[in-house]
Amino acid sequence: MRFRILLWLSLGLPCLLLAQVGPKNAVQSRDSVVVKPPGHDPQKLDTVEVKRNIPLQQQLLDRVRISPRSNSVLLNGNTFDVLNNIPSLQIDELGNLALQGKMGVLVTIDGKQTHLTGTALISYLKSIPATSVANIDLMSIPPAKWSAEGYAGVIDIRTKMDVLKGLKGTVFLGESKGRLWKYNNGMLIQYGTKKWTINSGFSIARSSNYFDVARERQLVAEDNEINTIAQHNQERNHALEMNARIGLEYRISKNSSIELNWNFLQNNYKELGDYQTSFSNAGDLFQSTSSWSNLRNPVHKNSANLHYDYAAENKKTTIQWDVDYLNYTSNRWQDLTTMIMQRAAHQRKDEQLLYSNNPFVVDLCGIKTDFQRKFEERFGLEAGFQLSRSARSSRGYYKKGETDQNLRDADALESAFRQVEYLEALYTDFQIKLKQWEFKLGLRTEYSQFHNEINDVYVELGKRKQTLYLFPTLFGIYKINKENNKAIQIAYGRRIVRPNYQDLNPAIFFFDANTSYQGNAHLVPQLTDNMELKYVHGQRWNIGVTFLNHRNYISMIHQLNEKNYAQTYQNIEAVRSAAISLNGGQEIFKSLTLYGFGQIQYIHYKNTPDKLNNLSIDRNLWSFQSNLMIQVKLPHKLTINWTNSYRTNVLYAQTVIKPLYQMHLAINKQFSNNLSLALTIRDLFHTNVIKREIVGDRFNIRSKTINDSQIVGLNFNYTFGLYQKQKAQKTSLETEVSRM
Questions:
Q1: Which of 299, 406, 412, 666 is the most buried (most CB within 10 A)?
Q2: Residue 196: what pLDDT?
Q3: What mean pLDDT do residues 142-150 have?
Q4: Which of 55, 205, 15, 185 minimizes the C-alpha distance to 542?
């Protein structure tokens, strides 16, 4: 009943708003060319031109560009808040991120990978205020220049890089409250002279969450008796994170510049868990366990980047160089105490202690160059190469015993894993315009070498010692009419998902005595072919069809035996999906604008067991999802954003996640150009309750998860300083695009 009320409310309120707002005066607006006219920069495409408003999103040849400055609510808050207000994006506090319903998105900042996932990525995005974001590019099929990682595409966040004389600063303060308190505070300072520019930032954030999980597992034994495992989990976690970054740019001449950037992150994560489990056979309770977990996981990240930029006088030739280094360490400590009670004629209690320590270290260094050249008005070329070396290593130490005094090393659990990877990549993009057609053809070649060690012994895993992959891309656009406001787009690209460290790491992590996670060292990379066909109606709306074909799809797999429940990753032989989606935005009245995204998707998983993979699956499902954002502008510089999202069942291999509906609200008050205040309410009616059903070979698992998703927040932004912008030549075409 509550769901029906919320659904009717979300549909009825837009009609009520329409009735309260008067019609707008006739204003002429013009959609601009969707493709480039002759003489334009090969990286720079014309976008919508509206005399009064900047559109939220602009359709370009190979990407969709989001302009935060189109919405005053987006400018007050952080980058995480901006992403949450993009209709085709879904992102939550746990780092689950999907683009047009597809998981596996690569997030980059100014074209560089963050190398962060999950809550660490969310904390980092919250440390970047929205006022420092120039635009956000959504690329479901990225050009060859970009890394081929992430089958769902790339989200590239471009920050403002103004060339200033004088001092400019921004202070941002954010406090929020669900069941637990959270905050995110920081400052950005920029100082510039004629030749030098210094950019610095510091933020400190506290994130908190809780999980209340009810789970029931049913296992059918060989004699067809049903063993039932009922579990109730309660977790509470806190993380204190500090981010610091500083950049120094020197303009060598009006055509070239060099820049050095350093970034530091420290995250102290703590989690307390209480797990209650009961075991029944044919309805009779025969055992119960109580587990208490104390988990600490401090994380440190240091990264540095040296960047050189050159542009010729006529800007027909540009060259960029990048040298990168990253060091990442984490050390996961866990104390797990389990009390086991046997329900026999005489009850007996046993206590078990498990202490674990899993240090993890990553060292990564690389070099990259990019060359761009315009030969004629209709031709452009971009090419480059990338070299990198990454080393990942960890060890799993375990101690078991009944008391602290008799703890012994658990040799059967201990493991060591080390992987060194060398990656060499070459790419080229060629762009050409022929009358009403424009094409962009690209090819990226990646050659990888691996060295793997398990327990200090070299092993060749899944024939991955050396691999060579070709990643072709194709973008095409056809202008239907002379006004250039209607077009048909086609796109194709091949992507790869390489197993990350946690997917491969054979060390076992215990949630409780009977629930664990373990990586799979035999995983092979996932390859995806992505095809799109889209009709673009100016910059107002578009409708498209997509098809994805995955080979060796990497998916979490659930395994259940008599008492133990384990999660791991395996390759699925073939996964295919097709979808039709509608995306657009329209100003209804002068003070009311609607943005929406809707998609119908079909997905099919199929796998035949082999000696390394015993999974047998042949499942398919149709699903639907929608996201509607309503923006209302009121007197006294007040703006309201109201977002509604809904999706039906979705399928992830063995798992079906039940329907989900959420409502979010944001109210912004702009006091001046430098001062603003915003009130946000996420998950207004606390409907973000995740219900899962997992079906496997002779077992069934149902679960319900509630977390701290209903959050009320207050964000404050203030900009200060005495400065003026310099008229310095921008040296890179890609940088120039980011500053539009």
A1: 666
A2: 92
A3: 86
A4: 55
Residue 362 scores a pLDDT above 50: yes
As a whole number, mean pLDDT of residues 183-190 equals: 90
Euclidean distance between CA atoms 586 and 53, whole angstroms: 11
Alpha-carbon gap, residue 572 to 385, rounded angstroms: 32
One-letter amino acid for residue 146 of the chain: W
Report the pLDDT value the prediction gives residue 93, as an integer from 0 to 100: 67
Give the span between the Cα atoms of 370 and 730, in whole angstroms.
16
pLDDT band at 576 (very low <50, low <70, confident <90, very high): very high
Supply the pLDDT for residue 71: 66
Q: Is 41 helix (H, G, I), strand (E, B) or coil?
A: coil
Using the predicted structure, report yes or no on whether residue 348 has a pLDDT greater than 70.
Answer: no
Separation between Cα atoms, residue 309 and residue 13, nearest integer Å: 51
Instruction: Write out the two tokens for 37.
Output: 């006219």
For residues 173 and 267, give the distance between their C-alpha atoms in angstroms, rounded to a whole number: 19
The region of weakest confidence among 121-135, 329-343, 513-527, 543-557 is 121-135
> CA of 172: how far to CAs of 161, 203, 247, 666, in Å?
19, 9, 19, 17
**What does the pLDDT look like over 435-466, one tens digit per residue?**
888 899 999 999 988 888 887 776 665 445 67
537: left (phi over 0), alpha (psi -120 to 50) or beta: beta
Q: Which two three-digit tokens encode residue 704?
A: 């319900």
| Cα–Cα distance for residue pair 127/242, rounded to 1 Å | 9
Asked whether the beta carbons of 415 and 399 are under 8 A apart, the reply is no
Q: Is this structure's pTM higher than 0.85?
A: no
Residue 729 in tokens: 């030549």
Rounded average pLDDT over 235-257: 92
Tokens of 510: 């215990």
Q: What are the residues whose beta carbons fall under 8 Å from the beta carbon of 39, sequence distance 6 or more?
A: 377
Query: Which of 195, 202, 173 shows the shortest CA–CA distance to 185?
Result: 173
Pairing of strands 153-159, 105-109: parallel
Closest CA to 594 of 171, 71, 133: 71
Confidence class for position 579, pLDDT limits 50, 70, 90: very high
pLDDT at 730: 44
**Mean pLDDT, the chain, integer:** 82
Helix, strand, coil share of the chain (percent; to 5): 10, 65, 25
Residue 49 scores a pLDDT above 80: no
> Around 475, how many Cα atoms within 13 Å sit in the side-chain half-sphere?
21
Angstrom CA distances, 28 to 51, 363, 479, 540, 584, stand at 8, 56, 22, 15, 19
Read out DSSP for 313-375? TTSSEEEEEEEEEEEEEEEEEEEEEEEEEE-SSS-EEEEEEEEEEEEEEEEEEEEEEEEEEEE
* 335, two tokens: 């104390």
235 vs 215: CA distance, rounded Å: 14
Closest CA to 454 of 395, 503, 413, 508: 395
Q: What is the mean pLDDT of residues 614-618?
A: 88
Nearest Cα to 57, choosing from 663, 450, 586? 586
At CA 121, angle to CA 236 and CA 59, rounded to 5? 130
| Span 621-640, pLDDT tens digits | 999 999 998 989 899 888 89
Quickly list DSSP for 460-528.
--TT-SEEEEEEEEEEEEEE-STT--EEEEEEEEEEEE---HHHH---EEEEETTEEEE--TT---EEE
Cα distances from 173 to residues 305, 324, 715, 718, in angstroms, run 28, 31, 6, 9
- Stretch 650-670: mean pLDDT: 92
Q: Given this model, what pLDDT does residue 204 score?
A: 93
Instruction: Specify the pLDDT at position 233.
Output: 92
Intra-chain end-to-end CA distance of the chain, in Å:
48
Contacts of 16 (CB under 8 A, 6+ apart): none
φ/ψ region of 68 (left if φ > 0, alpha if ψ in -120 to 50, else beta) reads: alpha
